[in-house]
Amino acid sequence: MLYFLFKRITLLIPTFIGITIVAFSFVRILPGDPVLLMAGERGISDERYARLLAEFGYDRPIWEQYLEYLNDLVHGDFGISLVTKQPVLDEFFSLFPATVELSICALILATVIGIPAGIVAATKRGSFLDQTIMGTALVGYSMPIFWWGLLLIIVFSGILGWTPVSGRISLLYYFPNTTGFMLIDSLLSGQKGAFQSALSHLILPSIVLATIPLAVIARQTRSAMLEVLGEDYVRTARAKGLSDARVVGLHALRNAMIPVITVIGLSVGTLLAGAILTETIFSWPGIGKWMIESIQRRDYPVVQSGLLLIAAIVMIVNLLVDLTYGLINPRIRHQ
Amino acid sequence: MALLNIQNLSVDFKTAGGLFRAVDSVDIACERGEILSIVGESGSGKSVSMLALMGLLPWTAQITADKMEFDGKDLGRMSRRERRKIIGKDISMIFQEPISSLNPCFTVGFQIGEVLKLHLGMDRATRRKRSIELLDLVGIPAPETRLSAFPHQLSGGMNQRVMIAMALAGDPKLLIADEPTTALDVTIQAQILELLVSLQREKQMALILITHDMGVVAETAERVQVQYAGQRVEEQPVLDLFEAPHHPYTSALLAALPERAVGRKLPSIPGVVPGQFDRPTGCLFAPRCSFVKPDCHKGVKRQPAELGHALCNHPIASSGSKTSAAGGAA
Questions:
Q1: Which of A232, A237, A254 has its CB closest to that of B100?
Q2: Rounded to an integer, what distance in angstroms lies between the CA atom of residue A271 and that of residue A314?
């Protein structure tokens, strides 16, 4: 087990190096540079432009810049934002809880609805219910997030007025940022209505972000269940006289969960990618919105280190997912 | 009164091409403490009839029977919930592939304990004690440590022993073994059969052994029922069947046994079991039968017990070689 862990972690190193190269070069391939963008429409004299570029070190050969970036990284320096002059790492960790909160809510929503929907569809295979669930899942999977988010805002915030349009909490409330998670902080503050406000702000973005993972999880659960329900051990479980609920919910589900866990793990990457759009639509102050804004301003240090941090998180989550296989699949645990 | 009494059981499967009759008006009876063997080729409906009894067929199966009586209760008229109290306890079943028949995600101890808890309501400590006894009973060494083993950590033979232990957990009156040795090595096959027979004697339970292996039949069974294309074509006590088969199909099956072959080439039965679309009218075996007469294509009649209940218009009166009294002894 320890060896397995060690092997997996060593494999992460080349991946990280690859990501630094991609993140570093990607942002420099984009036309324009931070100095030009900061100057805005008024323009800037060539002399001043050259001086500013030299100040940031962007006039040197690109490989030299890259090596310096790597050197900084190794020393734990993720750079300083050109726009806010704050360390990238500080900004990341102050914004990250908002994204995590949104992603966790979306993932819970996707799992809690997706798995039962998949089970029902599989056990009632071919029925009207199955076709309805799978049809809905297909629609959800194919829907453009941007359009879907705007549609929900128009209906629930605009027409019905049930939910707020954007942000994390109503401006009426103010309390210290203890955990960074608005739901928990609002509860801790003890202010009346704060939690409800935070929750109502979270609902629409969570639904939008959960849509694609939910559809994927439901479809994967259904197909895994269908496969497992035909297995000999399910017949054995029935032959023991066990109830349908126990046969399906324990004997079959435990085996069907193996591929579903993979999909849930992989959807963490999708969630972070989806968060970029969702956060932009709902003005959710998380890392997705932060990345988009930084790319627009060509804030090189933020984009290259932000991408690296996001990638690191996705990889760590994937590693954790691999480790949980062992918990549910004894055949892996004992290898 | 017979422990198991199934009369006129038919099973049809809904398929894209219409109904497929897998079991065709079969009668099966089994006394307490008896070993009945059901023999037939693949697709002869031998497993399906037992799965129908257990209620394990998929929803595409349409089951009809005049009677499906077990221990005086008609299983066919019971709700699924009521039937679940009997299956796994009074009737239990073991299957062909022991490794895939056990759930890979749960330990052996959990899977045996589940039966003990469900049917006998035992608490944790009693379950553990009883599971150890059961594993010991089926000849698994070091049963205490095996309780925490997963199926993939055991061999095929060991897994089949675990299946048997699990089947015995409810102290069944009837054990159905569906080709229990087919997937195992020859040496292990003999051990498992021996175990099944000795447990059957010890516990005085009835055993229905489904197999396509005449050798297994000869070694274990007391009474044999031969099935062909979903029909019961012959039924006799084992010795009589081997001495004087009355149905041409049984006779051909026995002639195909390597031990009985006389010529240089092993005899075989030409053709295949009829499928959904090439089902003949009249006798289903007629297209493959070497004794076929014109009237066989029109209809077929059931012979009396003296002729092994053969479903044949022209049963073989005796095997011709040794005894002609064999038919009368049936």
A1: A232
A2: 10
Q: Shortest CA distance to B135 belongs to which of B96, B166, B181, B92?
A: B166
CA distance B246 to B232: 13
User: CB-CB: which of A233, A239, A251 is closest to B88?
Assistant: A239
Our CA-based measurement puts residue A70 at a distance from the nearest CA of chain B, in whole angstroms, of 45
The tens-digit pLDDT sequence of chain B (330 residues) is: 789 999 999 999 988 888 888 999 999 999 999 999 999 888 888 899 999 999 899 888 999 999 999 999 998 888 889 999 999 999 999 999 999 999 999 999 999 999 999 999 999 999 999 999 999 999 999 999 999 999 999 999 999 999 999 999 999 999 999 999 888 888 888 889 999 999 999 999 999 999 988 888 888 899 999 999 999 999 999 999 999 999 999 998 888 888 777 777 888 888 888 887 888 888 999 989 888 899 999 889 899 988 889 999 989 886 444 333 333 333
Instruction: Nearest chain A residue to B107 by CA: give it.
Output: A330
Minimum distance, in Å, between the CA of residue B184 and any CA atom of chain A: 16
Helix (H, G, I), strand (E, B) or coil at B24: strand
If you count residue pairs, one on A and one on B, with CB atoms under 8 Å apart, how many are there?
Answer: 71
Q: Round to whole Å and give the CA distance between A312 and A318.
A: 10
The token pair that represents B56 in the structure block: 């394990």
DSSP-assigned states of every residue in A242-308: --HHHIIIIIIHHHHHHHHHHHHHHHHHHHHHHHHHHHHHTT--SHHHHHHHHHHTT-HHHHHHHHH
Confirm whether the ipTM is greater than 0.90.
no
The residue type at A5: L
Q: Which residue of A has its CA nearest to B82?
A: A241
pLDDT tens for B20-65 read 889 999 999 999 999 999 998 888 888 999 999 998 998 889 999 9
Which residue, among B32, B205, B200, B153, has the nearest Cα to B162 in the 3D structure? B153
How far from chain centre, in Å, is Cα A121? 27
Q: What is the pLDDT of residues A7-25, one digit of tens each?
A: 878 888 888 889 889 888 8
| pTM for this model (two decimals) | 0.81
R_g of chain B computed on alpha carbons: 21
What is the predicted pLDDT for the residue at B319?
A: 47
Residue A334: list chain B partners with CB under 8 A. Answer: 150, 152-153
Contacts of B166 in chain A (CB under 8 A): 236, 240
- Measured between beta carbons, which residues in chain B are less than 8 angstroms from residue A228? none
Interchain proximity A236–B101, CB inside 8 Å: yes
Q: Token pair of B130, please?
A: 């009883």
**Is the pLDDT at A120 greater than 90, yes or no?**
yes
